[in-house]
Design brief:
2 domains; globular; 8-stranded mixed β-sheet; alpha/beta; binds zinc ion; Urease, subunit C, domain 1; 16 helices; TIM Barrel; 8-stranded parallel β-sheet
Length: 422
């Protein structure tokens, strides 16, 4: 017998995260039908649920997935889109716990750099790490995100800087999909820092990125996007522009780390090139925001780095809101400035440190995070989108951003298959 649906999940309250008059795009008392890894239909429970259930190969009463609710007597659990962590650097060698310890014992940044710490230390350790070692540590880190209901992760290269290591990082990132129930989007971030072999020759390094590395990475389909660290301590706007135009020649979408430590006008440049996102943006000038609104560029907020570096300059949230620039939120998971393996904590930090509303924080880790990656097939609960779903034993979606380490999903579905929960 052939069924119209693979799975029907009923007794759920849905936070669809669609643009809607109602908070969280909520749909009370609905069932959801899944087929071939996608959402086939959203069905109000007062409709002929009995009929629909007969057309499904498997049927799940969501209340039975909640622990200590054997009889299914609790209120209906909430169903949300799977989270999307749209900015991470989670493939790297070693970690910087020792450096953290040294700093808190009073060592200066110069002391740490002299003892081989900082980003150069991570580059060294990443270059030395073989594929297996990089993969095993990356699996551990990505798993922490998945346990919280993350179903898509963006991973950047940028700790190899030479071609071999950058390629290895991107391959390792992509192969996480074979080990965890997650989609991976890779980003080539060659222009992250200046490697020792190009000391004092940033333009020479940009030549290497544009003439050798990027064309090879594009030809091997190793990256879904290209990113640049445009900053006084990173690369200038003219160097950034060279990488942007080279990436566009190779048909790769753009992202950029901009205005994290200074107003370098990277966001305006990124908007001019139609970048998918500008990330960090603490020092973004209000007057530059209309450029983002016009180009449809997403503002990616990274409160983990803001917190970890004890920054004080906040991104211009009110002005972004006023111009309807979509705001995404991510962990920036990296060893130096944001060793944060928790999208839920990033949401809490977005609310506490940047005064996002819990709804904005949730939208930032779902619908707007999808836009920051140029993905139109996920991030909201809607017929036709991927069936990447999380189920929560909560009274209101605001609880997810409110509580610190208070929640894990009762169940996670990746492309229609249940991958977590009982
Ligand atoms: Zn970053």
């Amino acid at each position: 017998m052939s069924y119209q649906y693979d799975t029907v999940i009923y007794n759920v309250r849905i936070a669809s995260m669609q643009d809607s008059e109602v908070p969280y795009g909520e749909l009370l008392s609905h069932a959801i039908a899944l087929k071939d890894g996608k959402i086939a239909a959203l069905i109000p429970s007062d409709d002929s649920l009995g009929e629909i259930v007969k057309q499904a190969k498997s049927v799940i009463d969501a209340t039975t997935l909640i622990p200590q609710n054997e009889g299914g007597t609790l209120k209906h659990p909430w169903l949300l889109p799977g989270f999307i962590d749209c900015h991470t650097h989670l493939v790297y060698g070693g970690n910087r716990a020792e450096e953290f310890e040294m700093r808190l014992q009073g060592a200066s940044y110069v002391d740490i750099a002299q003892r081989g710490g900082g980003i150069k230390g991570t580059v060294e350790k990443t270059r030395c790490a073989d594929e297996r070692t990089l993969l095993n540590t990356a699996i551990k880190r990505a798993k922490r995100l998945c346990e919280e209901g993350v179903t898509t992760i963006e991973v950047k290269s940028g700790y190899g800087l030479d071609l071999d290591t950058e390629v290895r990082m991107l391959r390792v990132a992509k192969s996480l999909e074979q080990h965890l129930p997650v989609s991976i989007k890779t980003t080539y971030l060659g222009a992250h820092a200046l490697p020792n072999e190009f000391a004092e020759d940033a333009d020479g390094y940009i030549d290497f990125v544009c003439e050798k590395a990027l064309p090879y990475i594009a030809s091997q389909n190793l990256a879904d996007a290209v990113d640049v660290f445009c900053e006084t301590i990173g690369f200038s706007t003219s160097q950034t522009e060279r990488v942007f135009s080279c990436a566009q020649e190779h048909g790769l979408p753009l992202k950029a780390h901009v205005e994290q430590l200074s107003d370098s006008k990277g966001a305006v440049l990124a908007a001019k090139y139609g970048a998918l996102s500008v990330d960090h943006i603490e020092y973004l000038a209000d007057s530059d925001i209309p450029h983002l609104a016009q180009s449809g560029t997403v503002a990616v907020l990274l409160p983990g780095a803001f917190y970890y570096l004890s920054e004080v300059q906040k991104p211009p949230i009110d002005a972004l809101r006023a111009h309807n620039v979509p705001m995404a939120l991510a962990t920036d998971f990296n060893p130096g400035s944001s060793p944060l393996a928790s999208i839920l904590t990033a949401m809490n930090m977005g609310c506490v440190l940047f005064q996002l509303t819990p709804e904005e924080a949730l939208r930032g880790a779902t619908a707007h995070a999808a836009s920051a990656l140029g993905l139109h097939d996920r991030g909201v609960i809607e017929a036709g989108k991927l069936a990447d779903l999380t189920l929560w034993d909560i009274e209101t979606p605001a609880e997810l951003a409110y509580c610190i380490n208070g929640h894990r999903p009762a169940a996670v579905f990746k492309e229609g298959k249940q991958v977590q929960g009982r």
